[in-house]
Design goal:
Rossmann fold, 8-stranded mixed beta sheet
Length: about 290
């Protein structure tokens, strides 16, 4: 009887499955797709524009805004970040893009401090914005661009001189200095090297080169970093390279194929070419600065 009862039960179960018209589901079948997580930031690289704010909030380094006295136009609001080291450090002046003193520029400065430099990033339109403000007082990015385009070259040089003189006299500074600039600031970094004979080095990120007369005044070593898909800027490289070589001066241009203008800020764009350029340009920049500011 026991055998016949089990057989009846199995028959009933089989009939039930037939009535439902489907097979029992496999327990191994997932019911939902796994969530997609964003890739972690590479800590050895400057943050991209999207990563900058979070990187600043996470940074253990001391950063603050200070007002640096300038010869005219009022004080220059300047972001300064100190490295964590026991000996004195070289100063790197971070010259912002045509978009002003943004979180991204502050993030770049913080990364330079991580690498052992005193990084100072002046807001070169300080006092020119609404109510006597600077970048943060402008209503839009277009307004910032308009204010920067209105700066006279003489004022830019005077403000950079004031920030440099203040920074190299800091107790934590070793007296040596460099500039690093991006886009509009890249061109300013190159031009400032001609205006300031005491500068030890200049880094140019996708900025245009000055004319031959200015190149003749440069004493600093210059490192240039450019996107391959940036014809407007790249057209100014060969003449500068030829003239600097003729004059026996140091100019090292590097062009990253496939990368676009602004590759360090827009690292996720151009199908990986911008990130590849950043990965190659960043360690080259740090090695260059360490050699010339030690």
């Amino acid at each position: 009887m026991l055998f016949s009862g089990i057989a009846a039960l199995l028959l009933a179960l089989s009939s039930g499955s037939a009535v439902q018209g489907r097979a029992a589901p496999s327990v191994a079948t997932p019911t939902a797709a796994a969530p997609v997580t964003a890739a972690a930031r590479e800590e050895s690289l400057p943050p991209s524009e999207q990563e900058a704010k979070a990187a600043l909030e996470k940074s253990p380094r001391h950063g603050e805004f200070v007002d640096v006295k300038a010869p005219s136009g009022g004080p220059v609001k300047t972001w300064i970040v100190y490295p964590e080291r026991k000996d004195k450090a070289g100063v790197v002046i971070v010259i912002h893009e045509i978009f002003g003193l943004s979180d991204w520029i502050r993030g770049v400065a913080d990364q330079l401090a991580r690498e052992g430099f005193i990084a100072v990033a002046p807001d070169l339109i300080s006092g020119h914005g609404p109510g006597g403000g600077g970048t943060d007082s402008a209503g839009s990015r277009d307004d910032v661009v308009k204010l920067i385009r209105g700066l006279a070259p003489e004022e830019v040089t005077a403000r950079l001189n004031a920030v440099r003189e203040w920074a190299i006299k800091l107790p934590a500074a070793n007296g040596r200095s460099a500039t690093i600039g991006f886009c509009w600031g890249g061109g300013q970094s190159f031009s400032y090297a001609a205006a300031q004979p005491g500068l030890n080095a200049a880094v140019v990120h996708y900025g245009t080169s000055p004319d031959a007369a200015a190149l003749g005044k440069i004493q600093a070593s210059v490192l240039g970093l450019y996107g391959g898909d940036d014809a407007r800027v790249d057209a100014t490289i060969p003449p500068a390279e030829a003239e600097m070589k003729r004059l026996g001066k140091t100019y090292e241009p590097h062009i990253y194929e496939g990368a676009g203008h602004g590759f360090l800020r827009a690292q996720s764009e151009r199908d990986g070419a911008n990130l590849k350029a950043t990965r190659e340009a960043s360690p080259r920049t740090i090695a260059f600065l360490r050699e010339r500011l030690k």
